[in-house]
Amino acid sequence: RAKAEGRGTYRVFSRAMRAHAEQRGRLATALAAAVSRGTIDVALQPQFTIGGRALTGFEALARWRHEGRPVSPADFIPIAEENGLIADLGSQVLDKALDAIGGLRRKGFSTGTLAVNIASAQIRHAGFAAMLQAAVHRHGLTPADVEIELTENILLDEAGDEIACTLKTLRAAGFSIALDDFGTGYASLSHLGRFPIDRIKIDRGFVSRMCGGQDTCTIVRAIIGLAHALGMTVVAEGIETPEQLAQLQAFGCDFGQGYLFSQPLAQDEVAARLRSGSVP
Ligand code: C2E
Ligand code: MG
Ligand code: MG
Ligand code: MG
Question: Where in the numbering of this chain does the EAL domain appear (predicted)?
Answer without folding.
Answer: 24-278
